[in-house]
Write a structure and sequence with these properties.
The chain has a three-stranded antiparallel β-sheet with strand order 8-7-9. The chain has a three-stranded antiparallel β-sheet with strand order 11-10-12. It has a two-stranded antiparallel sheet with strand order 1-2. Strand 1 and strand 2 form a beta hairpin. Helix 8 packs antiparallel against helix 9 and helix 8 packs antiparallel against helix 10. With 357 residues, the protein is mainly alpha-helical. The longest helix is centred in the C-terminal third of the chain and has 111 residues. It has a domain of 131 residues. Helices cover 57% and strands 10% of the residues.
Length: 357
């Protein structure tokens, strides 16, 4: 009870609107919500005449004719709301008198009449001491834990018209309903009726037996969920291992590719140096040949233009022979073309890229 009182505000808070229950209704999965909150949720999310509980996701049938106010009222949570009102009265909050309906922060409670009483009704209760002799009356502000527990377990008033002032103290076995004394002498004559407390005591064993059977299934289901969690954990571990393996394989492949890249570049550099050396050698030969040709032509021009006839005749054979030598030298142009073409073909066929395979 102490735990309930400490967490009372949480116990009467609707999980949809996060405010105190207003007309609490219980659905078949036994979760409770404000009537209007539940209706708004169901209308927005229902499919094929069903909606899911916001708490446990159980599938729930829409109420007949979509009348959410026809759903079972959570009398337990209504009792908790009353308990909360009593607790808050210590902070100056007012409580409705069970007789005159006047609200007051100075309220007493009669445990035998099961009614809150304002100061005026308390005086009347005291005046009629003969009728209420032995009744336990206490100021709400003086309640102890056991008094809250008694308040929580008090029997509700009858819901039948004209019986609202009667407490339901009996249970009709024929109709399986809680009834008051007025119900017995009117609508439940000749029915088998027993005290409500006795009926409840008889039923507690059955309820707890069902709870125990459900608890066994609950334990088995928790084990199944635990195995699911273990499987999920293993799956996450295996996925992480697989990802690391993929990353490591990729790094290895990248390292190999980089190594082949370095080898291919080194091969290209070597080929480049070799070919460049050959090209420069051929180029030098061409430059030398060009200089020789220029020199021969210049010599011939000087000889013809600036030399004597005797010098011309003395050098004509030498010059003729030199010109013939120069003409007989093979031009190096086709060698340069072959060097360039071989290098280009090596790049195109991937010979340098694939080196080291």
């Amino acid at each position: 009870m102490g735990s309930l009182l400490r967490n009372l505000k949480q116990q009467v808070t609707c999980s949809i609107c996060l405010d105190t229950y207003n007309q609490p209704k219980t659905i078949p999965c036994l979760h409770t919500f404000c009537c209007q909150c539940l209706e708004n949720h169901a209308r927005a999310s229902h499919k094929q005449g069903k909606f899911r509980c916001p708490e446990c996701q159980a599938q729930i049938d829409l109420p007949k004719e979509n009348r959410f106010d026809s759903l079972p009222t959570s009398f337990f949570h209504n009792s908790l709301l009353s308990l909360l009102a009593v607790r808050q009265s210590g902070d100056g909050s007012s409580i409705t008198c069970g007789n005159c309906k006047k609200r007051s922060s100075d309220v007493h409670y009669c445990f035998d009449c099961a009614r809150f009483m304002c100061p005026d009704c308390l005086n009347a209760h005291d005046v009629m001491r003969a009728a209420f002799e032995g009744h336990k009356v206490m100021a709400v502000k003086e309640f102890q834990t056991q008094d809250y527990e008694a308040l929580l377990k008090r029997q509700p008033f009858c819901s039948e018209q004209y019986h609202e002032r009667e407490i339901t103290r009996f249970f009709c076995l024929s109709c399986q309903s809680c009834v008051c004394h007025a119900c017995i002498v009117t609508d439940h004559q000749n029915h088998k009726v027993i005290l409500l407390d006795k009926a409840a005591d008889n039923e507690k064993g059955n309820i707890m037996a069902e709870a125990a059977a459900t608890r066994q299934n609950e334990t088995a289901l928790k084990d199944v969920i635990r195995k699911f969690d273990e499987t999920i954990s293993k799956l996450e571990t295996n996925v992480a291992i697989a990802k690391r393996g993929i990353s490591q394989s990729a790094e290895t492949m990248i390292a190999k590719i980089r190594e082949r890249e370095r080898e291919a570049i080194a091969s290209v550099d070597t080929t480049h140096a070799t070919r460049l050396k050959k090209i420069n050698s051929v180029k030098k030969e061409a430059e030398s040949l060009l200089k020789q040709m220029i020199q021969a032509v210049a010599f011939a021009q000087n000889l013809v233009q600036r030399s004597s006839s005797s010098h011309i005749m003395q050098n004509k054979e030498t010059l003729k022979h030199r010109f013939q030598e120069l003409r007989d030298i093979e031009m190096p142009k086709h060698l340069i073309h072959q060097i360039y073409r071989g290098f280009r073909e090596g790049l195109e066929t991937g010979r340098y890229r694939n080196r080291g395979n």
